[in-house]
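ok here's the first one, seq then struct tokens
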Amino acid sequence: MEQLFWLIIILAEASIAFWSIRRRKNLSAGVLISIYIIALQGTYLTATTGALSSQFGELSQASYETILSKTLYVYLILFLITIAALHSCPIQNTEKTNKIREKIREAADKLGSWPAILIIQFIVIANMLAIDKGIMWENNTYLLMNSPAAYNIPPQTAMILRVLFGLSGIIGAFILPALFQQSNKSRLAILLPAWLLVFLFQLSAHSRTAAVYAFVLCITSYLISRKWTPAKTALASTFIVFSLAFALKGRALPLHGLGAIPDGIWHIFENINTDTFAFILVNLMQGIFATGDALLLNASHAPEYKILSISPLPSSIDGFDKLLNCCEIRVNAFVPMSAIAEAYHFGPEFYIPLMIFMYITIRSTEKFSLQNKTLYPILLNLFVFITFVSANAYQLRNTLRQFIAVVLIIQIYSMLKRLSQKRKTQP
């Protein structure tokens, strides 16, 4: 009976989210978060029915049944707050959406200049020259390719090169759709091989970063496309799911590296079954399971830990990193308590303000999107969504700081814009 009740609630949430998307016609942070919450709740409810028993076992399934209502009530509140923040702002019209899409095209065009493409190519070549070729081709240590230990240069230099290499993959994924749309063959001839090498490098390392590259490529293609068909949606979804499946399933393989890609592909298709999809689903939605596990704990945090969790100061000043070692309560040795679970255990004096601040952040971002026809609102919306996703896996201190940063950025940008307009009107 309890499961039926929550099934009805989740279906009602899905109807509200679908109605919101159809009316707003833009994928803002509020829309993305509401969809993500529904997916989390649906996966969690499914786990209590035994449909995902291959991933959890009977003991874990019994635990999720015990904590079902408490966990789903917490996420129901988060959903209602998100929808309230979303609908406290007016609907964005199609004309404004088209202008934003045009801004994305312009931004991609600017980033796709010859200097930017040549810099990306230089970073990719430098990375290939600096890394140990044997490790890059085949190794038996998960994510060794993404560590400084794989490079024949000093560790600090290797770390900087790794960051630049990772960024080149994201920027390249953002630029490529615009170049394809323009049929710019000369620039494509330089950028496409470089980006494919970055993508295959991360894919062969079985890193989820490859799926991020695939997502950025597909979402940018959607945003700048003048005609997006269901076939393109199916192709994009398949590409993203394959990239994620390759990373998740490949972590357990004995070999990693560019030379192991064919074996990895064969492993996925040889073992593809319902367990494969369940495995991917649980990994994507692992945040709610970590939160549910944390809600099972009878946690009592130290007052100092609670106070410093909302401190805006760096750890070098307020000493939070030292307190973290002795006072943090974790789900287990490998899994920290999520921001949502920490706020719940801290008590209503912390949980309620977090909910209010989440409302303010989503509403501010949505309002900012309506008032500015630039690329910045899109980036902020994605950042807020990623922050919420991380709130299901990392401490309250991280989430709160990122929410505060978004609100401050919006306020500062708006203030500077008002001052600029005021100067223009003055004689």
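and now the second one, same deal
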Amino acid sequence: MAELEYNYIFIAQKQLHTALILFFEGNDFFSSAVLAKSAENIFGQELDCNEFEQNLKNTEAMYWFLFKETITRSQYSQCVNRIINRIRHGREDGLNRKKEGALIKLDAKKEAEIWIDMAITNYWNLEHKLTVEMQKFIFEQISSNQV
């Protein structure tokens, strides 16, 4: 096969698409999480992620696109903090690499959800659009959180 050049955003889009397919199939949350994290990282490098106001503005636009409603600064902060806290506190008794046969304790599905959510957010902030699969993921997350 001939060597070709690929745009990093194109690669990240493919990674996120595959992560979403694997997530929906429910068979490989580990690979889904790894692919989504890779895509999130590539999209994030294209953004100035330290710009809270710009991220808030972009999130407001995505929220309006999906729900035809506005999101408040407080709701946005809660959403961001929820993600950060789940990552920070979700690993308290996790990886111990010093022991032979070390194990990691985690909820693989939840880990995939976190990274897919972050990748979709970064994608939206770059492109201001969502694929059908991204919309499906968001709506399923909302439905499952309303229980």
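notes on #2: The longest helix spans residues 108-127. Residues 140 and 146 are 10 Å apart (CA to CA).
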